[in-house]
UniProtKB/TrEMBL annotation:
GO MF entries: oxidoreductase activity
Membrane topology listed for this record: Multi-pass membrane protein
Predominant place of localization: membrane
Listed transmembrane segments: 27-50, 57-76, 88-108, 120-141, 161-182, 214-231, 237-259, 280-298, 333-353
GO cellular component: plasma membrane
UniProt name for this protein: NADH-ubiquinone/plastoquinone (Complex I) family protein
Pfam families according to UniProt: Proton_antipo_M
Amino acid sequence: FGVKAGCFPLHIWLPKAHPVAPAPASALLSGILTKAGVFGIIVITGALFFSDGNWGLLLTALGLVTMFLGALLALLSVNLKRTLACSSISQIGFILTGIGMAVLLACVGEKNSLAVRGTLLHMVNHSLFKLVLFLCAGAVYMNLHKLDLNEIRGFGRRKPALGFCFLMGSLGIGGIPLWSGYVSKTLLHESMVEYAKAVGEGAVVLGNQGMPSAFAGMPGIITALLLNPGVWKAAEWVFLLTGGMTVAYMLKLFIALFVEKHPANQEAYDAMSASYMKPLSRFVLVGCSALIPLLGMTPHLTMDRIAGAGEAFFQGDGLAHSMAYFSPENLKGGAISIGIGIVFYVAVVRGLLMKRSDGGEAVYADRLPSWLDLENLLYRPLLLRI
């Protein structure tokens, strides 16, 4: 199930499969196939490991590594579909973290509904985001037969429908307030805050050995990690940092496609404004894109009902009170990620990940280090030795 979901360290197939797959296949691959892997993990978790603190810690750790690594790979990529594929890895990390937090909250006697609802909603959200974004990428590829950012830059100028759709997907996956991704990411973030607060204040249900019954018999180092509020504060910052990196790489894609101009082919790209997409395709894509802000602006009317419909399946215990999604405290998390994203874009993308071409133009440079490719670093040498 981890392979199918794209979880670290079994994620290596995703960045290689998406760039060569047709756009509709990429949308299904990211929206449905990876969720089948997540669904399997949820089923196993609920049936066998829901009271196992070791399992909750493992899933949370894998989720944090997966979300950060996927965002880093996306930030370094200069291929449109590869960037979106690495983004899928990162978003699967958010979902795995939610599953892990649902287990851990239940282990310490706290309500786990925030984590459960955030997990389920982010699964739905990510499917919708990637449906829109991969079909937008397909529209680019079908017209240009190219995916390199340096070759497709400026294609989206004077194409308002394509720009609207890509913007909705970008704002959604970036967790911007009033778009649906903000709702699911807020729930996941608050579940981490709630767990850290519970262990920090000692507000956990203790068993006979002076620790939560679910943690009894565990090695001391594992228990120390589970009950150390500093560890979970650090985990929260990994979550916020990764959210900022998501904003940065989506900002990179949007500016490359819709703001910058191609130094040689801009007039040809502008001439495609009327013919780059059929009217029916445009209507369907715009309709799907419009769902993202619609869901985000009506979370209690729409998203809470979606989450409530699936909550019992994942052993959620119900919200103690209605979630104030747009309270200053919850908006602060989104604002921090947005601020980090802007800093990353200016300092990292524009500062470190671009170079001057022979003609003096600023171009996107492929800075991906070889040690981040686990296939060539680990799996191929290991299999060749066997």
